[in-house]
Amino acid sequence: MTARPLGEGRGMLVAGLAVAAAGVLAFHRVVPNSPGRLGSLVESFLPWAGVVVALLLVVALVRRSGVALVALLLPVGVWVQGFGGLLLSGPGPESGVRELVVVQHNVSDENPDPAGTARALVAGGGDLVALEELVVPALGVYEDVLGAGYPHHVVHGTVGLWSKYPIREQQLVDIRPREFEEGWSRGLRAVVRTPYGDVAAYVAHLPSVRVGVRGLASSPRDESARMLGDLVRDEEVEAVILMGDLNSTVEDRGLAPLTSQLNVAERGFAFSFPAAFPVARIDQVLARSADVRHIRVLPATGSDHLPVAARVTLR
Predict the structure, then answer these.
(1) Ramachandran region of residue 220, left (φ > 0), alpha (ψ -120 to 50) or beta?
(2) pLDDT confidence bin for 210, thresholds 50/70/90
(3) Which residues pair with 291 in a beta bridge?
(4) What global pTM score does this model have?
(5) Alpha-carbon gap, residue 206 to 208, rounded angstroms
(6) Which end of the chain is more exposed for a tag (fewer CB within 10 A), N or C?
C-alpha cells in the first residue's frame, strides 16, 4: 500500500473538519440538550464557528489543498446564510418610516458610576430605555438623570422602562421560576402611546446561567422564557417590543418560546457580554408586528454589560 503524502493527509483532515463544521452550523438543532444542555451551549457560541472556518481556510491555503478548499465552501455558505446579514450596516434613516430607537442595558447592581451610566444612555438617543439590575440608592440617580429627557417611567422590582412618550398602562409580570423565592421580580409590561400607535413594551431579566463541568445550567432561565413567551402570545396589543437581559443568544433553543413568535435583529452582532471582552449578545431587543432593523453596542459604562441600541420599524 502506498502511503499518502503528509500534506495530502492534512488536507483530508481539514476537509473532514470543514464538513463537521458545516454539519454543526446547519443541524445544530439536532444536537441533544442532554446531558448538560449541550445543544444550548453550542448554540450560544454558534456565530464563532465562522472563526473556526476561517482558520481552516488559512490552513487549506497554506497546504494548497484543493480538496479542503472545495470542502470549505460548504461551511462558508452555511455560515454566510445564517449570519452574513448581520455583518451588513443597517439602512439609513428613511422619511416616513415608523421607527423607534430602543436602548437596552443591564446597568449592574455593582455599578460604581450610575450617573455616568445614565448620561451615556441618554447619549444613545433612544425613544425607550430599558434597564435591569436597578437597586437602591442607584435607582434615584437614574430617575434624576434620565427624568429630563424621559418624563415617563415605570419600575417594578429590579427592572425599569423610561419613555419619551406617555405610558398609559403598566404592571408587574410574573416570570419567576417555581424554585425561586418570593420577592424575585424581574419583569414588567407597559403600554406606550407612541406617535405610531400603542406599543406593548416588555422589560425582562431572565435568570442567569452557569457553565460548569456538568455543562450549561439553564433550567430556570428556560422556564422563565416559557412564562414570558406565554405572556407575549396572549398580548392583545398588536405591536410588541421586548427588551432585556435574556441571558442567552437568539440562536439558543432556550429562547425558542420567544424567538418563535418575535422578530430578531436583521443587522449587527452587537456582542454585549462580558463588557471587558464581549463574546455574545445576551442583551436583546425583539419585536412583533415590527422589524428590528439594526442593533449596535454603545460605549462601555460602569457595568459588566455593554448597552445596546436598536432601530425598530413598526409595521
Answers:
(1) alpha
(2) confident
(3) 313
(4) 0.86
(5) 7
(6) N
